[in-house]
Design brief:
The protein is about 60% helix and about 0% strand. The chain has about 140 residues and is mainly α. The relative contact order is 0.09.
Length: about 140
């Protein structure tokens, strides 16, 4: 490789590095939400008060951002970068006990999938999967 080719390659690498730093700086400093707001979103979701859609509308962000916040893929929890959710953090809205209650209510014929979804603030699909035993396995 000639000296000119080396210089050209070096210049290209510098441009890539500068571009990468710029992207990284924007991803950290141009965020719409603070870590405190992200923690509030996690709390609201864990209480079962809101869905991804409602939280996205309330905080004026996309549902995918809300999903990533809830799953711990973005924004810090308690000031620590977590990357992926810890095994100790449950991302589920319902407990196994509540899922069993849903199954009981449905088996009695007291309710429909739609009514149960509304009552427990989850999607129709979640209720369907619970009733069919695909998720929240019966104990």
């Amino acid at each position: 490789m000639t000296r000119e080719e080396q210089d050209k390659l070096f210049d290209q690498l510098q441009e890539v590095t500068i571009h990468s730093m710029t992207i990284a700086e924007h991803s950290i400093y141009d965020r719409k939400l603070t870590n405190e707001v992200a923690n509030t979103i996690r709390e609201e979701y864990s209480k079962g008060d809101s869905s991804y859609k409602l939280l996205a509308k309330k905080y004026n962000v996309s549902m995918s951002i809300i999903q990533k916040i809830i799953q711990g893929l973005t924004y810090n929890i308690d000031g620590k970068y977590i990357g992926r959710p810890s095994q100790n953090i449950s991302l589920r809205k319902l407990t196994n006990e509540v899922a069993n209650t849903i199954r009981e209510e449905y088996s009695k014929g007291d309710s429909t999938y739609k009514l149960l979804a509304k009552k427990y603030n989850v999607s129709y699909g979640t209720i369907l999967k619970i009733i069919q035993g695909l998720t929240y396995k019966s104990e």
